[in-house]
Specification:
Elements: H1 7-31, H2 41-58, H3 64-75, H4 78-95, H5 103-120, H6 129-145, H7 151-168, H8 174-179, H9 184-201, E1 233-240, H10 244-257, E2 258-268, E3 271-280, H11 283-293, E4 295-303, E5 313-324, H12 326-333, E6 338-342, H13 349-358, E7 361-367, H14 374-386, E8 390-393, H15 399-408, H16 415-427, E9 430-436, E10 441-443, E11 446-448, E12 453-457, E13 460-465, H17 468-481, E14 486-491, H18 495-508, E15 513-518, E16 525-529
Parallel strand pairs: 5-6, 5-7, 7-8, 14-15
Antiparallel strand pairs: 1-3, 1-4, 2-3, 9-12, 9-16, 10-11, 12-13, 14-16
């Protein structure tokens, strides 16, 4: 029975952890469903622990804590491996170069390690390795506070507390609850703590086997309510020749490029280095950010296993709309529509497809709200049909046509009938808009210069003038001269323009029903006439 952890005991623990992780690797890989179900958590933890032991074996005359931490950080693999390396670094910061650690020393170090691990992760999730590590540390601290200060009592309390927290992880993450498994990274850390108990006490704790709580479907497509496909690649590299300020900037840039971001630093004979890990779609951007911060090396890019969508829910119906601008997005969302934001650069079919699949609906209507986006929406719909969705694209050419389609949607109707009704409502809505000319051009209504107000109907400029209000009123007069019972106005950033147009309609077209939305859209005024 060890009374304190000296360098020899630390080495014995690390080797025991490697042996235990090697035996548990297959089961840990099988548990892996979060953050992506790529089945490598056990492998990554084992590789990280092996790198720590290799560095420890090569060390000469330095603290075992220092050597194993350097090896773990420089050799960390994957999300869980990098977090494990950070936990070891937190222990090393408290215990390296000091007297052998007794129970209270180790409890305090475990608490500090858990705290620093949380700070190393850009967006920490509960129900993961972080949660399990913190629970183990808190149990160790509680044991000391209760008077159980012997090293054996402290490590046993830590391992038991971590295991209790592990069993609770399915209640903290939807992906775990749905798959019926505990968190793979947390389970791996429990294996590491149990190896510590065996090292200190000579007795390996008796634990139930690491198996799913219920049979997990072999095909991820059979697991309901999974998130839509996420970032496509795991990017990991070591970073040298960078200072703390540059790393802080790098951290911010990578957080904007992806998720599962962990950055862990360690001192080496050649200077401080960082292990950088992120899941992202922008591999080049992640590496370029490292180049700007310092000198990235040992770069590894691994495609992530795709998360296949859940099977659609029969009878569930959804509407997905491509919408430009935050104001219009809020307007459509308020009508119960799933929104795909569209910026100046447009939108690609992957974004539309992700929203289609994320809806979980078996029947989906897509409103592109722009003639240029109808083919894009159609391609996304084709791919969604391959995944078992019944998708119909209503070719709305403007957000006001999309609003008209939503207004008549009725989930109580048969899906095909509802699609026809929405398409008819959109087609019966003449659409127009008032904008400001950005350059000199020759239009159907004559020449225009930058700053001129332009009134267009169905995509063609029909009015050119000096003031937005005057052009808007003339545009409406032209539209209503062909008849119309209702005018829908989507007012942009200037509410006064909406006031003027509404007053004009009340005076010049008193029988026309007016529906006004103050959406704060970029376009000064959008109009629909039914």
């Amino acid at each position: 029975m060890l009374q304190a952890l000296d360098d020899a005991a630390v080495g014995q623990w690390c080797r025991a952890a490697v042996t235990a992780l090697s035996g548990a690797r297959g089961r840990l890989d099988d548990l892996n469903v979060f953050p992506v179900p790529d089945g490598d958590t056990g492998t990554n933890l084992l590789l990280t622990a092996q790198a720590a032991v290799a560095e420890l074996d090569a060390a000469d005359g330095e603290s075992a804590w220092t050597a194993l931490t350097r090896g773990a950080v420089l050799g960390a693999r994957g999300n869980s491996g990098t977090i494990l390396a950070q936990l070891l670094r937190g222990l090393s910061d408290q215990l390296a170069g000091r007297e052998p650690a007794d129970g209270p020393d180790l409890a305090a170090a475990l608490q500090k390690a858990a705290d620093t691990a949380y700070s190393a992760v850009a967006d920490p999730e509960e129900g993961t390795l972080l949660t399990v590590a913190r629970a183990g540390a808190e149990a160790a601290v509680t044991a000391v506070a209760d008077g159980r200060t012997a090293l054996a009592d402290v490590v046993t309390a830590a391992a038991d507390g971590a295991r209790t927290a592990l069993e609770a992880t399915p209640g903290q993450l939807d992906a775990l609850r749905t798959a019926g498994v505990v968190d793979a990274g947390g389970a791996g850390f429990c294996v590491v703590l149990d190896a510590l108990v065996a090292t200190v006490t000579g007795v390996e704790p008796a634990r139930p086997p690491l198996v799913p709580r219920r049979t997990r479907p072999a095909d991820p497509a059979a697991v309901p309510h999974q998130p839509p496909p996420g970032p496509g690649s795991e990017v990991q590299y070591l970073l040298a020749d960078a200072d703390e300020a540059s790393v802080a900037v790098l951290h911010g840039r990578l957080a904007a490029l992806g998720d599962s971001l962990v950055v862990v630093g360690v001192d080496t004979p050649a200077g401080r280095q960082w292990n950088v890990h992120v899941h992202t779609n922008d591999v080049g951007g992640a590496i370029e950010a490292g180049i700007e911060a310092g000198r990235p090396h040992a770069i590894a890019v691994t495609p992530l296993a795709p998360v296949r969508p859940a099977a659609p829910v029969p009878g569930l119906r959804a509407v997905v709309a491509v919408v430009p601008g935050e104001g219009l997005a809020q307007l459509f969302s308020g009508e119960g529509v799933r929104v795909v934001p569209c910026g100046p650069g447009g939108v690609d079919e992957d974004e539309i497809l992700a929203e289609l699949l994320a809806s979980g609906a078996g029947d989906v209507v897509v409103l592109p709200n722009d003639p240029a986006l109808t083919p894009v929406a159609a391609r996304a719909a084709d791919r969604a049909r391959e995944a078992g969705r019944d998708v119909a694209v209503v070719p709305t050419r403007s957000p006001v046509q999309g609003l008209a389609a939503i207004a008549v949607a009725d989930p109580a109707r048969r899906f095909g009938d509802d699609v026809i009704a929405m398409a008819e409502a959109a087609a019966a809505t003449r659409w127009a808009e008032v904008t400001v000319a950005e350059q000199e051009a020759l239009t159907m209504a004559g020449p225009c210069r930058p700053g001129d107000a332009l009134g267009s109907a169905e995509g063609d400029v029909v009015v050119v003038g000096q003031g937005l209000a005057a052009v808007a009123c003339e545009l409406l007069d032209r539209l209503l001269s062909a008849g119309g019972e209702m005018a829908t106005l989507v007012v942009g950033p200037d509410p006064a323009l909406g006031d003027t147009v509404c007053a004009h309609l009340a005076g010049a077209h008193p029988t026309v029903e007016v529906v006004r939305y103050d959406a704060g859209a970029v376009i000064p005024l959008q109009v629909g006439v039914e």
